């Protein structure tokens, strides 16, 4: 499923405005991509929740709760939350993009 999801999103337009460029990471049920906000002309990070066979019915509710909590945070060491939505039934979160190496690197 990982490859299929990446191929579907690669180069696609999410939420009518975020052009997906590259997948940065895949961890559990979440994939992280770099994207361009075509309305504002800025680079963003797009995080997409993918269903897994082990997910319960409350996984989307928990994701949305986490997004609301992240959106309330304001701190110089925490990326800003720009947007959230659903693309082809997959919930997504758009955050500030911080260029550089990943934490894993």
What does this structure look like?
The protein has 105 residues and is an alpha+beta fold. The chain is 21% helix and 40% strand. The protein has two helices and six strands. A hairpin with a 2-residue loop joins strand 5 and strand 6. The longest helix is centred in the middle third of the chain and has 14 residues, at 59-72. The radius of gyration is 13 Å and the shape is globular. It starts with a helix and ends in a 9-residue tail after the last strand.
List keywords for this structure.
6 strands, 2 helices, six-stranded antiparallel sheet
The secondary-structure class comes to: alpha+beta
Rg over CA atoms: 13 Å
Instruction: Assign a percent range to the helix content.
Output: 10-25%
List low-pLDDT spans.
none
In this structure, how is the largest beta sheet organized?
A: 6 strands, antiparallel
How would you summarize this macromolecular structure in one to three sentences?
The chain is an alpha+beta fold. It has helices at 2-9, 59-72, and strands at 13-14, 18-27, 30-37, 42-49, 81-87, 90-96.
Strand and helix layout:
Blueprint: H1 2-9, E1 13-14, E2 18-27, E3 30-37, E4 42-49, H2 59-72, E5 81-87, E6 90-96
Antiparallel strand pairs: 1-2, 2-3, 3-4, 4-6, 5-6
């Amino acid at each position: 499923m990982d490859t299929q999801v990446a191929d579907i999103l690669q180069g696609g337009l999410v939420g009518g405005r975020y052009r997906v460029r590259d997948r940065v990471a895949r961890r559990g049920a979440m994939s992280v991509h770099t994207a361009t906000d075509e309305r504002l002309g800025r680079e963003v990070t797009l995080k997409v929740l993918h269903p897994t066979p082990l997910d319960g019915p409350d996984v989307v509710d928990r994701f949305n709760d986490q997004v609301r909590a992240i959106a309330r945070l304001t701190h110089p060491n925490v990326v800003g939350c720009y947007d959230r939505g659903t693309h082809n039934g997959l919930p997504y979160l758009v955050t500030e993009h911080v260029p550089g190496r990943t934490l894993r690197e």
